[in-house]
Structure to design on (225 residues):
């Protein structure tokens, strides 16, 4: 994803990063030699963190804003690139804020992410959705008028050194939260605890020499206006 961003931008480019979180990846991986980068997130706490990280980075072409992805209040045809990472999108609004020939780059979490873990817990992100969010996004981009739309599955093995580390990770991410991406449910809270016995069952079946394995199922989409 970052290689694509580097390839399609130059010193005159404006980039919009939706779902920027605390801005860590934007500040570390997005190109420095561009005109402007705007990072947005719906969470006030995330944007507060992002601004603290920005102050430490020394970068002067980046701003962070609290924005609802479904209400993009930007000028039409303003951005050369829009990036959306693990967040909901409105394809038509993104189309409006992109310049002609501009790029949209999406990285998301698909329905079958950590499927074995979800089966053990009996719930999970998008478990009951009929259509994977990757297909929903893909069709929405085509209907919005995007061209050169490419959908790519991304399979990644992640390893955790012990059950405690995995437990803390699962408290912060929505993998085994019971909500629908198909209905655009919003997960904006952290869990306080999980059923440790179920996690132990998963760990007993997925411990390797590298650590406790988690099979991630992401997807990537690129498109042009």
């Amino acid at each position: 994803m970052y290689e694509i961003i580097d390839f399609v931008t130059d010193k005159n480019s404006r980039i919009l990063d939706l779902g920027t979180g605390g801005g860590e990846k934007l500040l570390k991986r997005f190109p420095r030699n561009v005109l402007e980068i705007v990072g947005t997130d719906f969470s006030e706490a995330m944007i507060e963190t992002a601004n603290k990280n920005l102050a430490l980075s020394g970068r002067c072409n980046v701003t962070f804003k609290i924005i609802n992805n479904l209400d993009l209040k930007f000028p039409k045809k303003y951005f050369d690139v829009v990036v959306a990472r693990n967040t909901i999108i409105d394809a038509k609004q993104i189309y409006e804020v992109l310049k002609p020939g501009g790029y949209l780059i999406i990285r998301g979490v698909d329905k079958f992410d950590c499927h074995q873990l979800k089966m053990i817990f009996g719930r999970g992100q998008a478990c009951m959705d009929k259509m994977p969010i990757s297909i929903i996004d893909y069709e929405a981009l085509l209907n919005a008028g995007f061209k050169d739309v490419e959908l790519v599955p991304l399979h990644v093995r992640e390893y955790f050194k012990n059950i405690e580390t995995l437990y803390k990770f699962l408290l912060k991410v929505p993998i085994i939260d019971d909500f629908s991406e198909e209905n655009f449910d919003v997960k904006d809270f952290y869990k306080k605890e999980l059923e440790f016995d179920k996690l132990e069952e998963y760990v007993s079946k997925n411990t390797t020499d590298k650590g406790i394995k988690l099979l991630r199922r992401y997807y990537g989409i690129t498109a042009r206006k």
